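Input record, target 12 of the design panel.
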């Protein structure tokens, strides 16, 4: 237990890992829906997207040195490919400016 009485042992790590996984999956779903919408607009003559209708999911991570992030990326890649989506991930190597650049 910590000084404030909370237990940050195994349960705390599992809770954080679950929260990170949920956040990553939510981000992937949002990116997928944006990409799918862009592809539809592109085919209809709008801006963005491509005429192929291919769904591309992008994920920018702060670091892959942490095994939790590496596992999240691997899970996202497997699920994307299983559903016929293209998956692109970037690694900012602990550089927030690089992460912003990767997303743009």
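The sequence produced for target 12 reads:
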């Amino acid at each position: 237990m910590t000084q404030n009485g909370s237990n940050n042992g195994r349960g705390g790590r599992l809770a954080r890992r679950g929260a990170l996984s949920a956040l990553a999956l939510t981000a992937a779903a949002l990116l997928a829906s944006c990409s799918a919408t862009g592809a539809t607009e592109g085919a209809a003559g709008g801006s963005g997207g491509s005429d192929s209708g291919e769904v591309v999911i992008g994920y920018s991570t702060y670091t892959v040195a942490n095994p939790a992030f590496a596992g999240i990326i691997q899970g996202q890649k497997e699920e994307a490919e299983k559903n016929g989506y293209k998956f692109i991930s970037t690694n900012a190597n602990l550089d927030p400016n690089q992460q912003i650049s990767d997303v743009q």
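The radius of gyration is 17 Å.
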